[in-house]
Amino acid sequence: MISELCSLNRRQLVLQILGLGLVITSALVIWRSLVYLTNSESPMVVVLSGSMEPAFFRGDILFLNHSKRSISVGEVIVFNIEGRKIPIVHRVISSYSGKTLNNTNYLTKGDNNFGDDTVLYAAGQPTLSTDNIVGGVAAFIPCIGRITIIMNDFPILKYSVIGILCFLVVLSRD
Amino acid sequence: MHTFWHRVNAVVTLAIIALMVLAAAASVTDEFHVCEPKHDVSIAAVERLVSVDGADEAYFAIALDLDLRSCWTWNTKQLFVSLAASYVTPSNVAHDAFVYDRIVTSKTDANLTIPRARSKYKLREPEGLLGAEIEWILRWHQVRSIHWSPYDPVRVVNAIP
Hints:
The structure holds two protein chains of two kinds. Helices cover about 35% and strands about 20% of the residues of chain A. Chain A is an alpha+beta fold. Chain A folds into three domains: about 1-40; about 45-140, Umud Fragment, subunit A; about 145-174, no CATH class. Classes of the chains: A alpha+beta, B alpha+beta. Chain B: It comes from Micromonas pusilla (strain CCMP1545).
């Protein structure tokens, strides 16, 4: 491997590094376009808990869409809570709407949970406001997200996989 | 040029793309499915109406007779059936809240007859419930096995017309 790397001439090396840069930037471009198209700050989430079983299981990947104006009771939404890093996927069980749309508040609950989510919300926040909502579920891929869960549990695995991938990209010749 | 791993990569990529296209195409048939639900819902009793910390809290007993079997398609993972109370408070706030829900995981279970279902969630209203004109709303949400649509509609009917 090392001798292979040394045998590359300078021009080839530059080409390989540029190729790697192209892969990374196109991934970023795709991500930002998804954010723009779906109007959702994070258009892809991995389900991390079993609170929505049997609809969604741990490790399912959800694609979100937030371009719809209003959210109705009974829909499954993903929301962020202040002070919590991880977005939550739950169902809206109640809504209070005032005269304007921005006045609408929601209460959510996981299908598999006993009680509603008031205990999960930030202190002094009895219901969700429109700003908390990241999006509704638009598409779903089962199980694949398990990989990210395992990688987050074992960071060494994550970095070694990234390292090996970078190494392969730099070395691979067309 | 064409090493073993190149070939494996090409075959696996093609297989995944073909499967994704097939699954998406098959899920389109769901859109043409005609759903003719039968529902007969009535409020059997108001079991409790009490004032807690200045807010009215109500518990109901509901008589449910639902047949949602025609709404069950091959692509249905579960139906989430719910009954909600909807009304407008004196200060003009529209409140829409679940009173009862149930997860249906098979077609035969989509035929529900519960003569006296206790409300699963209490209906809590700080502005008081006496005199409120409550509209009862029946909803069912189809959770799909192959889910691929920008919007995920929840079907709504008036439970007690």
